[in-house]
């Protein structure tokens, strides 16, 4: 009797049982954080075919981290809003360029610019916009640099409200 049960539980490759249904993946909104590095542009190159295949929209997000420097004379930290404004302006121009030249009319896409800690702003945007998938690049920092700064991608992976695809340069590629 045990052999009979084992046979029933073992399915042949390519055969579906009558009760099982094919799994459906439903992606409508893909988020790609961009810092304009070659790494983040590679993540965009992964997002475009995903969006085409699933008829999804791509959202590009660029996060300006506040520029704060310690001040002398016990005034506390000093921010430089003019620098942040310039980074937002230039970031907007570069995002528009990516939308125009990399994505074009292949898939629907939009952009967002936020100010704050990168990982936090990415997670907040993903929640607000009900993102289905985040495709993010990792720079592959290790050692002291990773210990001092941490990894935005790592923090996003740990706390994201949806699945995350991490793209790492130099590894085996499946998008050509």
Give the termini separation. Answer: 52 Å
The name of the CATH topology is Rossmann fold
The ordered H/E elements are: HEHEEEHEHEHHE
Gross geometry: globular
CATH class type: Alpha Beta
The number of helical segments is 6
Q: What is the overall pLDDT average?
A: 82
Number of DSSP strands?
A: 7
The helicity comes to 40-55%
Give the count of structural domains.
Answer: 1
* Strand-residue proportion: 15-25%
* Strand order in space, largest sheet: 5-2-1-6-7
Structural class: alpha/beta
Radius of gyration, in angstroms, nearest whole number: 21 Å
Largest sheet: 5 strands, parallel
Give start-end ranges of low-pLDDT stretches.
4-11, 145-149
Instruction: Tell me what the CATH architecture is.
Output: 3-Layer(aba) Sandwich
Write the layout of secondary structure elements.
Layout: H1 2-9, E1 29-33, H2 38-54, E2 57-64, E3 68-70, E4 77-79, H3 81-103, E5 109-115, H4 118-128, E6 133-138, H5 143-149, H6 152-159, E7 164-168
Parallel strand pairs: 1-2, 1-6, 2-5, 6-7
Antiparallel strand pairs: 3-4
Q: What's the short story on this structure?
A:
The longest helix is centred in the middle third of the chain and has 23 residues. This protein is α/β, with parallel strands linked by helices and 176 residues long. It has a single domain, classed as HUPs (Rossmann fold, 3-Layer(aba) Sandwich), CATH 3.40.50.
Walkthrough of the structure:
- The structure is a single chain.
- The protein is an alpha/beta fold and 176 residues long.
- It has a single domain (26-168), classed as Rossmann fold, CATH 3.40.50.
- 42% of the residues lie in helices and 21% in strands.
- It has six helices and seven strands.
- The chain has helices spanning 2-9, 38-54, 81-103, 118-128, 143-149, 152-159; strands at 29-33, 57-64, 68-70, 77-79, 109-115, 133-138, 164-168.
- It has a five-stranded parallel sheet, with helices on both faces.
- Strand 3 and strand 4 (77-79) form a beta hairpin.
- Helix 4 runs parallel beside helix 6.
- The longest helix is centred in the middle third of the chain and has 23 residues, at 81-103.
- It is globular.
- Mean pLDDT is 82; it is low at 4-11 and 145-149.
